[in-house]
Amino acid sequence: MGIVIIFFLVAILAAYGAWSAFKNKNILGLIFAAGSFIVFGGFALLTLINSGYPAAH
């Protein structure tokens, strides 16, 4: 379950990075930050949905 929490934190930082890159008109930074947000946030969300919280064994 710890990896889901870490991935949610990475997704939050990626969202902040995407917002910062958008404000600074940094297109390449925006692409990478938005991609990271989608990948890490999606993985964390789907793992949370699949495993439940706390993890049901």
From TrEMBL:
Transmembrane segments: 27-49
InterPro entries named in the record: DUF2759
Keywords from the named record: Membrane, Transmembrane, Transmembrane helix
Name of this protein: DUF2759 domain-containing protein
Species this protein is from: Cytobacillus mangrovibacter
